[in-house]
Amino acid sequence: MNDIGWIDAVLTAARPQAMGALLRYFRDLDTAEEAFQEASLRALKTWPQNGPPRDAAAWLIFVGRNAAMDDVRRRAKQVALPDEAAISDLDDAESELADRLDGEQYRDDILRLLFVCCHPELPATQQIALALRIVCGLSVKQIARAFLVGEAAMEQRITRAKARIGDAGLPFETPGAVERAERLATVAAMIYLVFNEGYSAPSKEAKTRAILAEEGIRLVRLLLRVFPQEPEVMGLAALMLLQQARASARFDDKGGIILLEDQDRSLWDDKRIAEGLALIDKAMRHRRPGPYQVQAAIAALHARARRAADTDWAQIDLLYANLERLQPSPVVTLNRAVAVNKVRGPAAALEMLESLGAKLSSYFYFHGVKGALLQQLDRRAEARTAFDRAIALANTPAEAAHIRQHLDHLGKESA
Amino acid sequence: MLYAILCYNSEAAIGAWSKEYHDETMARLHVVNDKLARQGRLGPVARLLPTTAATTLRKGREELVIDGPFAETKEQLLGFYIVDCASLDEAIATAKDLAKANPGTGSYEIRPVAELHNYQLAVERKPAA
Fold it and tell me: Is B65's Cβ below 8 Å from some Cβ in A?
């Protein structure tokens, strides 16, 4: 029996809190990481015999802090390290420390740790890589594999990102209410990026990248645990869970895309759907709508429909109208057009697309949707032009193959 | 005597289990469940969604609806078993079997059941749907 499997999980789970506190203490990412690393090594040595401490995070902070300080002292004076027994026997110190760690500080530590990864000067991919390394504790190798790059390149990317953050100075003052809300929004956006990097991966890479979607869900749950009353955080968690619930129904055996309408809904993950629905229900009680909640509400309507034909498109149309107001964007309008097609027909939907042509002329989905609407209206030549344009813009072979099916269909109809 | 065995652990730690470790642990727990069921000693078993999905209603002159679990603790209530045991010793032995199948952090609270009502749901539901 693998009786230390639980230790990895406990270390991973305690990592954000421990790293957050160590970062506050040492004000330096590398020192904090080394301290946590050292504490983890000692945990692996002592926990199997002594059993887990009552509060793993407090233990790791205490041991990590001492180890790093010993290191500093040793470098200065070559003083011997305290022996292992002294370090593992820290029941009193541990509970005292745990008390002090509760509440606000714990929350701000974790928020800061997430926030340093979202420095505005860092490109999105570096933010994601940093969060996976520092907060989630993924190895450079794991991150490199998820991003389909070499280990050395990823190592360099992370080192560079850390240096940039160091130069910019870390935010150590306790944030005020406004600043906390801003940090929360920035962090939420970064977490969604992590998730999306896995979720929107093309089918061929979906398996390798699935880890990103899963880590995104772990991060949003972490954020929700420290901010349990923020409706937009609930909305974001709901959105990610509801989307990821469909993961195993989204591609066929050959990696082809299966549209929502055609998915085998028995493959959807009921547990994730239940959790997502519970969260969006909770969020909406607050009557403080935001873009994540609205998107989650749309995903919830799809999740609630046992068959594609049961989908409440009229409600989805209304929700997209809401989203257009909260977060105006041509892509949102394009999505709304899909709902409008179901409620009021292809002519009304096509009319909505008119105004988008200029902004979305190089957007694959725009031409795909336009082609499908034209096809429904039996305007075949125009449909073919739109599909051809979509194929030219396809980002992956699976996308191109999907559009080609439409073209084949057009061909058969006109034959 | 009926006992409720309430399972507590850190949700974050459970959430960090690898898929393999999760599957292995569940398989080991199923062995314990099956044995209890064969002995006719196992009643309802429930696994709860994370406390982040919980809502609390505080009673009082003004009722208060709060997001999250009743208490903020390091370990959360994750689920429970209802088991028929001849004695407290047997209940502890059962909890030990569960602990052996699912080692590490966390705890099992063994609570004698005062009353158990087996109401039937009108619709047979898959729990998560």
Answer: yes
